[in-house]
Amino acid sequence: MRQLAGLALVAVTLAACAHQPIVGPASERSQPGQVSYTLPPGGEVSIVVVGYDSVSHRRYDLTSAPLLHVQMTLANRGTQPWTMHSRDQIAFIESYGPSTPAEASDHPLVVAPGETRTLDLYYPIAKAEFAQAPPRRMSLQWRVRLPGGVVGDRARLDREVASVVPPRA
User: b/e string for 25-55 if b means 16 or more Cβ within 10 A?
Assistant: First the structure.
């Protein structure tokens, strides 16, 4: 029994070491249409809902589908590069659950010191449900890897989504 408890403790310890803990940003501020975060090493992450879009999925021979367009801007004012994976930016869209961006890259976006980079993220929405009632609420769970660890939060963007006019069918 003692040996089993010891093995469980080792497994939990190894699992905890495999993932870096996520630290919250230094501060957050909102203005109409945007949520901005100040990061500890010097810099900022801004998130804004641009609107609904429709993109044809030629790669998969599918017809066009509605997408929620979110723009994320990273301004690195620190002395070390940042990295961000688009697949780590998870949208929680009302009535749809968690969603990763369409066409998420396996390669990280690197933001060098003194650089500002903007990434457009498109989250697919089921066409049939969208036609009945476009989502009005969402949050974005975002993560940025800094030299000392991972910084992230869950940005509530309800007001921004509710103000966007859906495209005509």
Answer: beeeeeeeebbbbebebebbbbbbbebbeee
